[in-house]
Amino acid sequence: MLRTARLAIGALALAVVLLVTAVPAQAVVWSSSDRWGTWSSGGYTLYNNIWGSGHGSQTIWANSPSNWGVWADHPNTGGIKSYPNATRYIGRRVSQLGPVTTSFNVTVPTSGVAFTTSYDIWSSDHAHEIMLWMNKYGPVGPLGSFQVTAAVGGHTWDIYRGSNGSNQVYSFIRTSNTNAGTVDVRAVATWIRDRGWFGDVTIGDVQLGYEITSSAGGRDFVTNSFSVSG
User: How far apart are alpha carbons 65 and 47 in whole angstroms?
Assistant: First the structure.
């Protein structure tokens, strides 16, 4: 009986340790380890979004839509496992966009991982996807073929274009990694339209998140601040 009690206490202690490593030490407003966990606040929605095959465990937490993060333990195998993100919907055509900017500041691991910190900006019909890779680590690469290097929206990018079979993808890979900055969304969307890659589409979701391929052993990805204005 005593041995059983000790085992139960040990198991409880281990569970507490695992929980502490998965979320920040301070109390958080919301957290979830569910694959499709979501939380909405102040016009933003957060998604845990563990969508890839062969995934491990992941916990998302938030103090606010602008201050959130994930603890992710995905195996060191190929293929994207998840894209935890925060989203704000715009809902206006490119020609009708006023100034639309987004700012971010993150703290991310830089070794023993494969991921990108990236924006996903979608047309409202999900036929077109604009990816803005703000940083990348490990063996990851964009979809499609290289088009041009250009300065657009406040940054210089290597730009790729392709299709994933469901939608057109325009990948803007920043020529050097950064953990903080501001992007002019209207300028990026207008640049793509002016090249004839899409028409006067309606810009829908503007998402910032972490496209994680591997993070074996568990790593923290922290969004210190994030906002979409306009």
Answer: 11
